């Protein structure tokens, strides 16, 4: 038998008691204008760190062994970032007349700042020499389940659906997943704002900032305690790298929304304008 003949014969999964995904959980909470769920960010930060510690621990399978980011690694991230930025710039130009006025205005603002967008990829450089590992790859609130015992579980390690299998399996910085969850908090805020209107806008912005703070603090505390070498010690380098990954994710989101649901493109465009 060779490798091409290998296949999955059976798979066992743990059964959870009445699980609810965190996107639904948080969405229902925000719809009630209940903004007291900051503990979710804290719990998910620790959960994410434990996931990365597990994925970054030496394995008997080469596909899960960690390695170090080289200059070539950084270059590949930057090239992918630049390609996405070019695609976004072209897609926004092609879609401008079809967008609603708010989205069109945001698109013009982002278009003017595309040189600054591209410059943000320099944040990747600070990760040179730091571990790259297998990550979740499509990490957001919908991929986390909470059961009736208030335990959290990560599901669906399949990567982003619009990326190739090779890209999904590639080892990368754990900050890719961190950025994915931070972007998911932004989407939760945006979804709630679409329902609540201006009345809840300020409270939702405060909620998102609090979730970000709780998530990042909890994540870093756990990583620093268990596998501090996974991330740079220098806080400024860490912030610049995380912003690069967040913008990288937002570029992906802009392309996804333009092709799938243009009425939502305002959300990643708003975030990009704020990052810059």
Helix content: 55-70%
Q: Report how far the terminal alpha carbons are from each other.
A: 54 Å
Strand elements, count = 5
Q: How are the strands ordered across the major sheet?
A: 1-4-5
Q: What is the strand content?
A: under 5%
Query: What form results from the Cα inertia axes?
Result: globular
What value does the average pLDDT take? 90
Q: What Rg, in angstroms, do the CA atoms define?
A: 19 Å
Protein structure class = mainly alpha
Largest sheet features: 3 strands, antiparallel
- SSE succession: EHHEHHHEEEHHHHH
Q: What are the segments in which pLDDT stays under 50 over at least 5 consecutive residues? A: none
- Contiguous helical run count: 10
Q: If you had to describe this structure to a student in words, what would you say it looks like?
A:
The chain has 276 residues and is mainly α. The chain is 58% helix and 4% strand. The protein has helices at 22-31, 38-55, 71-95, 101-112, 114-119, 165-169, 175-196, 201-226, 235-260, 266-275, and strands at 20-21, 67-68, 131-132, 144-146, 152-154. The radius of gyration is 19 Å and the shape is globular. The N and C termini lie far apart (54 Å).
